[in-house]
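Researcher: Checking consistency across runs. Here is Ribonuclease P protein subunit p29 again:
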Amino acid sequence: PQGSEKDKTFVHAFLKRSMPKMKDEAIQEMLTRKAVVLEHYPKKKTKQKRKKTKGFTAKQRRELRLFEIEPEQQRYAIFLPLHELWKQYIRDLCHGLKPDAQPQMIQGKLLKADLHGAIVTVTKSKCPSYVGITGIILQEFKHVFKIITKEDKLKVVPKLNNVFSLELDGFISYIYGSKFLLRASERSAKKFKLKGTIDL
């Protein structure tokens, strides 16, 4: 019948469009079968390679002196506003240092807080020459604090074998440097144990 010819022509054209890679003979052979399985040929997408932003290496940072503080900038008075900002940051972090605040909660917050701008004092040390050093933390590295004292002297104090104290609104906290050998960015994700052996 005429209708079946139209159907056959339509199916043939449909298969030709759906499977452009298949020859006419192969399509005709498929039409003689009872079942027709259509194959899908997706267009290949060209993947765009993302360019990785490469930072400076440690050697390049040293050569460029990125983290060095110029001698004319090594003055205690310059960094006092930084300390005021740090105090406000800690108050906001601890929801206000109220008298009824739990010391464990404040201590836990301080352990993960950024200490740049805090005034610290070395209270205990295996090296007596470090005891009594007080100043604002300008830089924190994995193993050392760089502290500017009131005498405008930049001191590099190792964390290992030293105990530091910091005071804010009457709350005094002690930092055992030997348990604090982490970069500032790593401390925020670190889980500190509430109890443990404390040794200089």
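Researcher: Does this match what you'd expect to see?
Model: One thing to look at in this run: The first strand starts at residue 119 and ends at 125.
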